[in-house]
Amino acid sequence: MQLNDHVPVDHRLSQVYRFGAGLMGLILVVFGILGLLNHVSFLNQAGERVAGLNSNGALSSISIGVGALLFVGMVIGGNFASTLNICVGAAFLISGFVNLALLDTDSNLLAFKMSNVLFSFGVGLLLLFFGMYGRVTGGLPHDNPYWRQRHPDREGLPVACGVRCGASQGAGSAS
User: Fold this and answer.
1) Nearest Cα residue to 84 out of 95, 72, 96
2) Per-residue model confidence as pLDDT tens digits over 27-83
3) Could you tell me if 53 and 119 are in contact, meaning their C-beta atoms sit under 8 angstroms apart?
4) CA–CA dist 148, 171 (Å, integer)
5) What is the reported pTM?
6) Which one, 49, 79, 97, 103, has the greatest CB density within 10 A?
7) Which 3-state string (H, E, C) describes 111-157?
8) Which residues contact 161 (CB under 8 A, 6 or more apart)?
9) What crossing angle do the helices spanning 13-37 and 114-132 adopt, rounded to 10°?
10) How far is CA 69 from CA 2, 22, 27, 75, 80, in A?
11) What are phi and psi of 41, to 5 degrees?
12) Residue 162 has pLDDT above 50, yes or no
């Protein structure tokens, strides 16, 4: 059994995953469209400034594609959106590091500048936050489906009572 199989699609956490995917997708699509409207050549390393960031045709096209993918995640929602946010967020962080290393070289095919690197880190961290929200922490509430999946032996415990009540039920009633 996989962890993703046990979270209902209509769980309240799905709204966070959808919102994150939709917001970041909208930002990327708008950036990509504005970049394409500047008519910069596809692999122009100098690029053009768009909304405070540097862009060329390749970066604009990639931004639109990734934004559209995040919109798909928003529409599907649930565990798919969460996992997609995590994967795309990690890809943005990796892209930030790779493009940081490529700044001011002939291999900078996406016309990245330092502002693009910082933007990539920011979007990556936000997508990771939206994807991992309510899913990755040590203090998940006991009604959280991820907590229930990780603790199948405690399934019968009252939600409000949690682990402490389950641990203390057998403890002395001698007081």
Assistant:
1) 72
2) 999 988 988 888 777 877 767 788 888 888 888 899 999 999 999 989 888 788 888
3) yes
4) 24
5) 0.73
6) 79
7) CCCHHHHHHHHHHHHHHHHHHHCCCCCCCCCCCCHHHHHHCHHHCCC
8) none
9) 160
10) 23, 10, 13, 10, 11
11) -60, 160
12) no
Close Cβ partners of 35 (under 8 Å, ≥ 6 residues apart): 48, 50, 55, 56, 57, 59, 60, 63
Q: And the tokens for 142? A: 């006991």
Q: By C-alpha distance, which of 7, 2, 1 is closest to 82?
A: 7
Tokens of residue 157, six digits: 């415990």
Residue whose tokens read 């603790």: 151
Convert the pLDDT of each residue in 112-138 to its tens digit. 889 999 999 999 999 998 888 877 766
Cα dist from 21 to 92, 150, 173, whole Å: 13, 26, 51
**What DSSP assignment string belongs to the chain?**
--GGGGS-TTSTHHHHHHHHHHHHHHHHHHHHHHHHHTT--TT-SS-EEETTEEE-HHHHHHHHHHHHHHHHHHHH-HHHHHHHHHHHHHHHHHHHHHHHHHTTSTT-TT---HHHHHHHHHHHHHHHHHHHTTTS-S---TTSHHHHHH-GGGTTS-TTTHHHHHHHSSS----
Give the type of residue at 75: V
